[in-house]
Amino acid sequence: MTLPEPPRIRVVVVDDQELVRTGFRMILESEDDLVVVGEANDGEQALDVIAASRPDVVLMDIRMPRLDGVEATRRLGSNGPRVIILTTFDLDEYVFAAIQGGANGFLLKDTPADELVAAIRVVASGDALLAPSVTQRLIERFRAAAPPATTPHPGIGQLTDREREVLIEMARGRSNTEIGDVLYVGETTVKTHVGRVLSKLGVRDRVQAVVIAYESGLVTPGSS
């Protein structure tokens, strides 16, 4: 008896450079579990392509004509596909806006092929892409531009002391393994705490939790 093949992860690639889109397509379609179901060269076209192809994950460039990736991500809303923002470090300020708009993570455009593929799988599984090696550098840039702390998110008050500690470490760009090392707990325990933090804050993933940590003043500019 032949077992049915598992469903492939459906991806749409959005970038205003055809060469970039072609390169991504070649990388992704060399993997058995990934398939590119559409391409778009700007945000307006992306919304139409996404509506027609119903992808699981969108690779979304930020700076594009007509409609940029930040606004396109915002328009997709919480019921849309998972979105990975493609950026370069000279556009970091746009990344923070994209995350606030609902993006599930971000990658540098020069990310190695194996890391790109792994990132798509992570995001498609429902997790967020917060690679510590990239996140920490971005957070340092965001701190200076972050808006003043406002009224804390109501979910912050529901967190236990340990959950607050875990959220703070998440906001500092640490992985589950690194959080476990800092707090002297196992990685499985960290995952449990992360799940509870997301539930109490009412967010989809740790990217959104990190945004709340900064906006609520739980993590302040210049803290380490």
Give a written overview of the molecule:
The chain is an alpha/beta fold and 224 residues long. The protein has 10 helices and 5 strands. The protein has helices spanning 18-28, 43-53, 69-76, 92-100, 113-124, 132-145, 161-171, 176-183, 187-201, 206-215, and strands at residues 9-14, 34-40, 57-61, 82-87, 105-108. It has a 5-stranded parallel sheet with strand order 2-1-3-4-5, with helices on both faces. Helix 7 (161-171) packs across helix 8, helix 7 (161-171) packs across helix 10 (206-215) and helix 8 (176-183) crosses helix 9 (187-201). The protein is globular, with a radius of gyration of 18 Å. The protein starts with 8 loop residues before the first strand and ends in a 9-residue tail after the last helix. The relative contact order is 0.11.
Total strand count, please? 5
Measured by DSSP, the beta-strand proportion falls in 5-15%
Order of helices and strands: EHEHEHEHEHHHHHH
Oligomer: single chain
Shape type:
globular
The chain-level mean pLDDT equals 82
Number of helices: 10
* Percent helix range: 40-55%
Q: What characterizes the major β-sheet? A: 5 strands, parallel
- Runs with pLDDT <50, length 5+? none
Strand order of the largest sheet: 2-1-3-4-5
Please state the structural category: alpha/beta
What is the end-to-end distance?
A: 57 Å
Question: What's the quick description here?
Answer:
The protein is α/β, with parallel strands linked by helices.
Mind sketching the topology for me?
Elements: E1 9-14, H1 18-28, E2 34-40, H2 43-53, E3 57-61, H3 69-76, E4 82-87, H4 92-100, E5 105-108, H5 113-124, H6 132-145, H7 161-171, H8 176-183, H9 187-201, H10 206-215
Helix pairs in contact: 2-3, 3-4, 7-8, 7-9, 7-10, 8-9
